[in-house]
Amino acid sequence: MALSRKAGIRRRLRIPLALATLATTLAAGAAVLAPTTAAAAVPEKDWLHVQGNKVVDEAGNEVWLTGVNWFGFNASERVFHGLWSGNITTITKGMADRGINLVRVPISTQLLLEWKNGQTVAAPNVNTYANPELAGKNNLQIWDYWLQLCEQYGIKVMLDVHSAEADNSGHIHPVWWKGTITVEQFYQAWEWVTNRYKTNDTIVAMDIKNEPHGTPNSPPRAKWDNSTDQDNFKYACETAGRRILAINPNVLILCEGIEVYPRPGETWSSPNTDPDLTPNYFYNWWGGNLRGVRDYPVNLGANQDQLMYSPHDYGPLVYEQPWFQGTFDKTTLTNDVWRPNWLYIHENGTAPLLIGEWGGRLGQDARQDKWMTALRDLIVQYRLHQTFWVLNPNSGDTGGLLLDDWATWDTTKYNLLKPALWQHQGKFVSLDHQVRLGGATSTTGYHLADVYGGGGTGGDTIAPSAPGNPSVTGVTSSSVSLSWGAATDNVGVTAYEVYRAGTKVATVSGLTYTDTGLSASTAYQYTVRARDAAGNISAASAAVTGTTSGGGGGGGSGCTATLRVTGSWQGGMQGEVTVTNTSTMTSAAWSVVLNIPATLTISNLWNGNRTGNTVTNAPHNGSLAPSTSTTFGFVASGSGTVTVTSCAIAVP
């Protein structure tokens, strides 16, 4: 469960709380994928792999992991919560019937080490009157019994080391070692559980550590860099991942984010000053800060195709983050929070994302409802993988999909989640090739062979509609930025192909693209086509022409400044300006004048100081020897693009 960085916030996972009246009702929608290729032989095993930002089965068919969390094995009870009143079979089949194809199960390193050493809980907190099938079973036997239920109902499982110790508040500890549990034991626990289930393709993913976090002035804390330091979570995730994959090279490895990351020009040694006054670090939810991936991506060696990243995100009822103050919506959350912290990983094609925790109560705060709907819509828009927090009604900050009786489903909350569950032709899709989601007799679920051939119900042959008319949203001397309207499809659009003068130049998942490397003062014509996962291609959109501006960067007194667009999206851009000293003397300072259209707002700028349209050097980069350069960067929200007008230096 995610926590804010404020030390006073605590979770109460064990105390059942009555859910408040829920007032928001959403119509259930359909969020679907379809066959990517012609029917291939149905794989015997259900192991999953990574291709770019997609997850595919062993035949190369794209899949969508859409599920929920169920905690308890991580806590002091060392068994699923809710079995004190609910029935394990009923709960599990209820998840499958409602479209849950993956369950993220929090566990603890301590629990795995106990099992490794032959220690079990002989009589866990289970009502055997409600669960006669569990009578006489210890907690490890209950776990194995539940895995068999998952196999029976077509559900896959992801293990998540939620804490070092088996403690109901263990997730509050910021790192993956604690007390007598060492880092080496953390790795050994993962190796033990991997080896025990290495041939069981019900467990398809392993989330290395839940919500590593902490701030620099409150050790221990998790950082992200290229070191082999004990507190470097990137190194810990790589090490655990490689040791797991040496045993089972087919299991997915998930690496979460951390809490803070140094801003440009800062280091992990910078003081942790108040971020609202002197921002030395970017802050986010525990586990939600994946900014470090841009500079230091996780390297799993020969098994890089098993890597996913897994941020967490929550709403204002969990903690009043700065971005919830004032007016916000899906666009501002995307530009200000989600994209810079983790969405860029998907957009750049680096790796797939699985939102490991998101959720909360509905009907108590309009802003909370707005946030949850916005994130749900982002998940559906980009087909991001996700596991909703949580099934349990006894999650104090969020409530659950089940009500306090552990039998009744919260229909309002479920209806909000339902569009983010994988559906095909009106049925839910499992990640199993032989077992339909819901079991052999299910009337509400498909298995992968049904969808991708071999089951008789696949074979999508209907092409999407043409995309909405494209428009030019910005130009530079070497680039043209485009946006267009979404296409529709009977199953689901998965990509857009961008054509320049009839030649395909890009395939993107969103509704924007920036074509770069163009000639100055030149007209270029573009069209866009939509593609579904079966490979059906739409007719072309209407054509649009973009004309690049005149060449050259800003020149002036003793320097040049050249702008490079490093990222663009619907509603914003990121740029980098290279300032070069062209004089024969070392500069004492420099300044660059930008042309910022009224339709754009610069929301963040680093390695420089901006006043209006003028950017001057930061204290550390004003001195430039002849022919040397420095850079500053910025993020801008809105439409259009920033250009450079002039550059000047001052000499001693």
From TrEMBL:
Report a single Gene Ontology molecular function.
polysaccharide binding
Q: Which InterPro entries match?
A: CBD2, CBM2/CBM3_carb-bd_dom_sf, CBM2_carb-bd_dom_sf, FN3_dom, FN3_sf, GH, Glyco_hydro_5, Glyco_hydro_5_CS
All copies of domain Fibronectin type-III, residue ranges: 466-551
Question: What is the E.C. number?
Answer: 3.2.1.4
Catalytic activity reported: Endohydrolysis of (1->4)-beta-D-glucosidic linkages in cellulose, lichenin and cereal beta-D-glucans
UniProt entry keywords in alphabetical sequence: Carbohydrate metabolism, Cellulose degradation, Glycosidase, Hydrolase, Polysaccharide degradation, Signal
Residues of the signal peptide? 1-30
| Pfam families, alphabetized | CBM_2, Cellulase, fn3
- Provide a GO biological process annotation: cellulose catabolic process
Q: Which residues form the CBM2 domain?
A: 552-652
SUPFAM superfamilies attached here? (Trans)glycosidases (SSF51445), Carbohydrate-binding domain (SSF49384), Fibronectin type III (SSF49265)
This chain belongs to which protein, by name?
cellulase
**Organism whose genome encodes this protein:** Catellatospora chokoriensis
